[in-house]
Amino acid sequence: MADDERKKLEEEKKRKQAEIERKRAEVRARMEEASKAKKAKKGFMTPERKKKLRLLLRKKAAEELKKEQERKAAERRRIIEERCGKPKLVDDANEGSLKQVCEGYHRRIVDLENKKFDLEKEVEFRDFQISELNSQVNDLRGKFVKPTLKKVSKYENKFAKLQKKAAEFNFRNQLKVVKKKEFTLEEEDKEGPSYLLIF
């Protein structure tokens, strides 16, 4: 009897365990379907993928910027070395070798100043030629360059004419002339001024 009860309890436990497992499987299946539906709605670019892509783009841009800076620095060093030459060892040099180094630098400075002067004069001459050609072009075109005309509406022109007429319109000319003497301040002297009466 005790064995039968134990068997029944064990079978009951197994049945409950199987029921729990079956429910868990259903929940997992539902969750997987929901996640698939979300992925299908969102498309290919999920937020995690976007973050990874941004990080990769930033890293690549930083690497390219670093390479570009290194390339520019190397180019700068090469140009400086080409223009200035390698530095001379003057620490344990005697007076004669120092004189030769100074003379070499002096010759180089003179040559560079000559080239600079020639280039400045060439630039001035080209500027002069450009201004001369511009003046010749203007002479061939005509003395003045015609400005482009703007569109003006008809109503603005009419309004401007009316304003001009209103400015010319004199209000005093339109007043009536009154010949009553009641508004005069002084009576006119009929005889005239006294200095005229002497003659």
Automatic annotation (TrEMBL):
| Gene Ontology CC | troponin complex
Segments for region (Disordered): 1-45
Q: Which SUPFAM superfamilies match?
A: Troponin coil-coiled subunits (SSF90250)
Keyword set, alphabetical order: Acetylation, Actin-binding, Methylation
The highest taxon in the source lineage is Eukaryota
> From the UniProt record, which GO molecular function terms apply?
actin binding
GO BP term (any one): muscle contraction
User: Residue ranges under compositional bias (Basic and acidic residues)?
Assistant: 1-36
Q: Which InterPro entries match?
A: Troponin (IPR001978), Troponin_I (IPR050875), Troponin_sf (IPR038077)
- One Pfam family assigned to this protein is Troponin
Family to which this protein belongs: Belongs to the troponin I family.
Q: What is this protein called?
A: Troponin I
Q: Which organism is it from?
A: Diabrotica virgifera virgifera (western corn rootworm)
Upper lineage is: Eukaryota, Metazoa, Ecdysozoa, Arthropoda, Hexapoda
